[in-house]
Design a protein that fits this description.
The chain has about 375 residues and is an alpha/beta fold. Strands 4-11-10-9-8-7-6-5 form an 8-stranded parallel sheet. A two-stranded antiparallel ribbon has the order 1-12. It is globular, with a radius of gyration of 19 Å. The two termini are about 35 Å apart. The chain binds flavin mononucleotide.
Length: about 375
Amino acid sequence: MGEPGPLCLADVAHLAEAALAADLWDFVSGGSGAETTLAANRAALDAVALLPRVLAGVGEAATGCRLLGTDAALPLAVAPMAYQRLLHPDGELAGAEAARLAGVPYVASTLSSVRLEEVAKVGADLWFQLYWLRDKSLVDSLVARAEQVGCQALVVTVDVPIMGRRLRDVRNGFRLPADVIAANLAEGTTGRAHDDVAGESALAAHTAAVFAPALDWADLEWLRARTTLPLVLKGILDPRDAVRAAASGVDAVVVSNHGGRQLDGAAPSVDALPAVVDAVGEHCAVLLDSGIRSGTDILRALALGARGVLVGRPFLHGLAYDGARGAGLVLSLLRSELRDAMTLAGCADVAAAATVSTVRNVRAR
Ligand SMILES: Cc1cc2nc3c(=O)[nH]c(=O)nc-3n(C[C@H](O)[C@H](O)[C@H](O)COP(=O)(O)O)c2cc1C
């Protein structure tokens, strides 16, 4: 009998690590500073222990749901991630194809290496992630383009006033190869992201040059008035910000520390989740990302009140391993793991998953 293929997301990660150049692996898997938050995301998820219900007559759980008005095969969207052509020549086209086939929303990054208009042609349920640029007319035109191509939500990332210091990238002198560009921005010029910048990551230098560091609530209110698309704020940890967001007409927040890539020392997002759900859960949807690596992790998030999750790095691992097929494999593993975890926990559907109780596993790694 032949070897079984990858059986879990960790298997896919190992295959991706073997396939990628060391500096690219570091760019994808690394975090900021001492990577305390990166590690804590995992430890905190492992510490959420579930209390399964029995004799619930479930048979096989159904994972389908609605996420912000989009029908989804499971409560998951692909996290926005920049420059996917670094991982596979088809980049975002392969990513969006995997999401389309799996029936989950694909969030296209402002820093996509394929133009939004091309990604839209793939036909996935598409959300657009907006980074606030210094040039407001560019922000305006990105929003117009997202509306034009039929994006179903706008995800505004609010935890990158500057880029967190990613020491692996600084040490590796990481920069973009010439053929990978920020295709959505002016004529694809990525400027400094291609340069060798002494003592700094080239991507951080590019961010500093292009992103607006002093984004505030007035900007958000301008955006709320500017578009009727559902608005999602990504990168919320403090319930006070969630309350302000809900009051500003935001439709959903993503409790996230950017996968441990921004403020090192920020709380694990799963630890911050319950207070945000308590504060705004009735007024806006609460999603979670940072460290989701299995169907059990998705169930943990649902049990703590999230409506769904975003998945980041594992999707890129799948892309690196086998393009659209590899990314699709990651999504189908997550779906079957979630179905099994829900069945084992006695949850017939996603609504029932929200009623599962948890305790703290103090012995978790
Ligand atoms: C390589 C890479 C690129 C990313 N690019 C973006 C981006 O362009 N916009 C954004 O909002 N978040 C970006 N993120 C953060 C993800 O959207 C997400 O918050 C994070 O990866 C979730 O954690 P996880 O990787 O542990 O699942 C990026 C993450 C990675 C790993």
